[in-house]
Amino acid sequence: MPKPVPLKPGDSIGLIAPSGAFDAGDLEKALKVLREYGYTPVYSNHIFSRYREMAGPDWIRAKNLIDFWKNENIACLWCIRGGYGSIRILSRLPRHLVEKNDKVFVGYSDITFLHNFFIANGKSVVFHGPNLIDFSNAGEARRRRLISFLEARIPFRWDIKETNVIRRGVASGRLIGGNLTCLTHLLGTDYLPGNFWRKAILFIEDRGEAGYRIDRMLNHFKEVGIFEHLQGLVLGSFTACEPYDRLKERILDIVKPYQFPVICDLPFGHSADQDILPMGLEYIIDTGSGYFAPTEKVFSTQ
Question: Where is the active site (predicted)?
Answer without folding.
Answer: 109, 205, 270
